[in-house]
Amino acid sequence: MNLMIVDDHEIVRDGLAMLLQQSYCIDTKKFATDGYEAIKIAEEFNADLILLDISMPGGLDGLSTIEKLKRLLPETKIVIFSMFDDIAYQKKAYESGADGYLIKQLKRDNLVHSLDLILANKKVFSNQIFEDHQEGESLHELDLPITKREKEVFVLTVSGYSQKDIADKLDISVKTVENHRQKIGEKLGTQKRFEWVDIAKKYNVFQF
């Protein structure tokens, strides 16, 4: 895979490249510090995946760069990778042709999971974007990096059900519930139930 990372912070570029090299086979990688440099590189570099920040110097931000990159590389997956978790930015990115919008606060597994979906021709944005754009496209909500069964246990847990109640509802043993909870905690990076509630809200697991 050919990769381009567009960000004006060297530590972000290097750290992200290192993380992705651990999860994907990267043939060639290119770095750019702003939109203009990214466009210049794209004229000669056929990237498979481009990750770019929104806020960059030089007068050409990430959102404005998307449309120009899409014209040059229509088959390339272009993903905004930003610290701004704002629905207005996500909507603009979607309308500009981005394939996904990911925030820099994502844990490693969540990031890789989302990129896997994008590389599989899904568009990854928040649920609200989906509700505003019902066009029959192959869309995928930002989802938790857990299995279907683990998600059932997760939802029941944050809803306040005891392990025994969950076991009865899902027709599994209490020990199996404990094992699922342990694995969920490892994947989410926390075993604390109040933090699970925050995660559930963030990922719109259900309506609160």
The dominant shape is: elongated
Quaternary structure: single chain
Task: Domain count, please report it.
Answer: 2
Q: Would you count the extended β strands for me?
A: 7
Q: How much of the residues is beta strand, in percent?
A: 5-15%
What letter string, H or E per element, gives the SSE order? EHEHEHEHEHEHEHHHH
CATH architecture of the largest domain: 3-Layer(aba) Sandwich
CATH superfamily of the largest domain: Response regulator
Mean pLDDT: 85
How would the blueprint of this fold be written?
Blueprint: E1 2-6, H1 10-23, E2 28-32, H2 35-42, E3 49-52, H3 62-72, E4 77-82, H4 87-96, E5 100-103, H5 108-119, E6 123-125, H6 127-132, E7 139-141, H7 148-158, H8 163-170, H9 174-188, H10 193-202
Parallel strand pairs: 1-2, 1-3, 3-4, 4-5, 6-7
Helix pairs in contact: 2-3, 3-4, 7-9, 7-10, 8-9
Name the features.
2 domains; alpha/beta; single chain; two-stranded parallel ribbon; 10 helices; Rossmann fold; about 210 residues; Arc Repressor Mutant, subunit A
Task: Report on the architecture of this protein.
This protein has 208 residues and is an alpha/beta fold. It folds into 2 domains: 2-141, Rossmann fold (3-Layer(aba) Sandwich), CATH 3.40.50; 148-202, Orthogonal Bundle (Arc Repressor Mutant, subunit A), CATH 1.10.10.10. Helices cover 50% and strands 14% of the residues. The chain is built from 10 helices and 7 strands. It has a 5-stranded parallel beta sheet, sandwiched between helices. Strand 6, helix 6 (127-132) and strand 7 (139-141) form a beta-alpha-beta unit. Helix 3 (62-72) packs parallel to helix 4 (87-96). The longest helix has 15 residues, at 174-188. The radius of gyration is 19 Å and the shape is elongated. The chain starts with a strand and ends in a 6-residue tail after the last helix. 28% of the residues are buried.
